[in-house]
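Ticket #4471: structure export looks truncated?
Reporter: QA, pipeline team
Priority: medium

Steps to reproduce: submit the single chain below to the structure queue and open the exported record.
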Amino acid sequence: MASICQIGVAKYAQGQLVDEWSSLVNPEDYFDSINVDIHGITEERVVDCPTFPQLVDVLRGFLDNTICVSHTHFDRVSIGRAFEKYELRGFDTVWLDSARVARRTWEDCAWSGYGLANVCEKIGYIFTHHDALEDARASGQVLLAAIETTGLDLESWLERVRRPIDPTKSSSGSALSKDGNPEGDLYGEVMVFTGALEISRREAADLAASIGCSVASGVTKKTSLLVVGDQDVSKLAGKAKSSKHLKAEQLILRGQDIRIMKESDFKELVRRAAECT
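Actual output as written to the record:
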């Protein structure tokens, strides 16, 4: 997830879009054809583009000492992993997950349908998915719509997202299971593990369930997340991929929205989610 090939930032003030910036990025990493099919960015398009360290000062100018809104933790994890990859100093930024906001604003988004495309359709905002700048604008629009709907201001939302979706019920007694904690940030996602993991599959399943993911043994039309053991990622440029990995790629080519990540990215996703609880 440190292999960022596009960055987009939309700056809002007083409820209005006041500035924006985007850039293609040379991730200095292997380009998987499956990812290219999703976002349309090829290695040829970014080979002469700046690398993340060359853009970090511009990005820092937008994000330092601000509240940064992103939909789910994936962008936050990707940025964090890029800082680790290049051994750079992070941002002094407060992160706010607009998916957590949506789940606490609209009842029909509480347990499903809180993906960015679905929420934007609900609020009447039209955007192009899988474009970094469009996603940034849309995340801001979701927050603005939630503020208007609930009457909660920005500071109130920073506190509200740390409380249960239904504040009248406590989630402390919810037993974590492979069905997923319904209060978890990624409730509704279906995760599958493949390859050799550093941790046991039971521990991985418990961690996935703690952030809301249901865990399945095989890749199906319901799968939305595939975690590949870090030891097997080196094979991506070769021909040796697990049957689950290959099946996931086939489903992606048919239009299914499946995100493939390394085990270390999965652990970081869990850690970031835990910070918000």
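Status: closed, not a bug. The export was complete when the record was re-opened. Leaving a note from the reviewer for reference: The chain has two domains: 6-160, 190-275.
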